[in-house]
Write a structure and sequence with these properties.
Layout lengths: L1 H23 L4 E3 L14 H11 L6 E4 L11 H14 L5 E5 L5 H14 L3 E5 L10 H14 L4 E5 L1 H4 L5 H7 L5 E6 L4 H10 L5 E4 L5 H7 L3 E3 L2 H4 L1 H13 L2 H21 L1 H11 L16 H13 L8
Helix pairs in contact: 2-3, 3-4, 7-8, 11-12, 12-13, 13-14
Catalytic activity: (4S)-4-hydroxy-2-oxoglutarate = glyoxylate + pyruvate; (4R)-4-hydroxy-2-oxoglutarate = glyoxylate + pyruvate
Family: Belongs to the DapA family.
Keywords: Lyase, Schiff base
Amino acid sequence: IMNSLLKLNKVIRSSKMVLRSMSSIKLAGVLPPIPTPFNAKEDIDFDKLQINFEVWNKHSLAGYVVIGTNGESASLTLDEKAALVTKCRQLMKPGSLLVAGAGCETTRATLATCERLVEAGADALLVLNPSFFRNHISEEALYDHYMTVAKQSPRPIILYNMPASTGYDLPVSLMARLADHPNIAGVKDSSGDVVKLATVVDAVRPGFQVLSGTGSVLHPGLQLGCVGGVCAIANVLPGPTAQLYHLHCSGDHEAAAQLQRRIIGPNGLVTRRLGVPGLKAAMELFGMYGGPCRLPLVPLSKEKRAELRAEFERNGFQPVSA
């Protein structure tokens, strides 16, 4: 009897935790997916991370995503991921949201990562779908994976659709089914497909929060019903990216559209074309720390750096560093 009572109490506490977490998690606004700063030895440089936060904290960002694709999550150990979450929690402004990437190639590893990162201070977990065996993983298997994680995760999870990295585009039908679980707060869709964003917004339950996963379609996504965006360009241009969001919220869609058009070119370079090395190089142009990536990612050539600078300048964003 005692064991049964203990199990029942655990279930009740878990249910209350899920309801409480869902009632408090708000994803609206702009969240930069921050890069992980490394030194010349490819060790994490927490001092340089502080320098970047001193810049980001000056702007009206809703929060931060750590250990995502731009954070080189695939190159980090679990201990390093937890240390990054703890440090980010210390450096960010009070009241900001901290989302941590927790997706792994197995359900068991994803759950272990969720628990560890919540202990370290994460408010929510961004869960990229397993992709190594993507040709042998059905939609039903992915549904079971996400449902298992959602049921056991100590904090809300956010679905992460990143077909450019995983080679798999999460179906809208799958997102709509998963959206019904109270511990799945939303989805970050990085497909860059405006039609898909609209379809997802239309298909999911009210209150399920859809985030644009790229700055190139932030304003169109907001107009279609997205609540915000996780935008790599916000690392480099935190002020203008946040301004775009606030222009939309204030109803000044003409100004928002003009700013959106200026952001598209630089964003395309630091995401799809040049990747994480391009993002880090762009941050250095604007007085922040980029630094090296971990191999096999390599720094940009001088020619690519010049192309990067020219693209920002062409769109009216003046670098501060040589």
